[in-house]
Design brief:
By secondary structure, the chain is mainly alpha-helical. The protein contains 7 helices and no strands. The relative contact order is 0.06. The model has no long low-confidence stretch (mean pLDDT about 75).
């Protein structure tokens, strides 16, 4: 971890905890054949966690090279923000009248920062349904925007 970049989001303690959870979750018949075997398994678990984290950071669906903008920076910097937020609130209220599940999914995505899959799971949806609802909500907002500008 010392050689990782300063903006690395996984802290050493979190890495050790995740590795521990993976090691404890091994089949009950797993017997460590000594300290060396345990440390080898721990090192492999940590390597996999770091590689998964790196892949997630670089993947296109996670924004690859996009620069993260905190909501507070956005709110403070744009004088139109109150109007945008009020429009969003109005749109969410109207979407909720038509499709409450999609509106809840949008709220979790935009305000809680959850992924589509995480938001769907929080609402008890399967992954496919969550993505269908997300696609519907995006289309609904796009259609609404098209009718507002006309």
């Amino acid at each position: 971890m010392a050689r990782e970049s300063a903006d690395h989001t996984l802290q050493a303690t979190a890495l050790v905890h995740e590795a521990y959870i993976r090691l404890v979750g091994t089949p009950p018949d797993q017997a460590w054949q000594g300290r060396g075997h345990f440390f080898a398994a721990a090192a492999e678990a940590m390597r996999r966690i770091l590689v998964e984290s790196a892949r997630a950071k670089k993947s296109r669906k996670r924004g690859r090279d996009w620069r993260r903008i905190e909501l507070q920076d956005f709110v403070d910097s744009d004088p139109d923000t109150p109007g945008i937020l009020l429009d969003l609130d109005e749109g969410l209220s109207r979407l909720a009248e038509e499709d409450a599940e999609s509106a809840e999914l949008v709220k979790l995505r935009l305000f809680a920062g959850l992924s589509v899959t995480e938001a769907g799971a929080a609402l008890g949806m399967c992954r496919t349904t969550a993505y269908e609802n997300w696609k519907f909500a995006r289309s609904w907002f796009a259609a609404r925007e098209g009718t507002r500008s006309s």
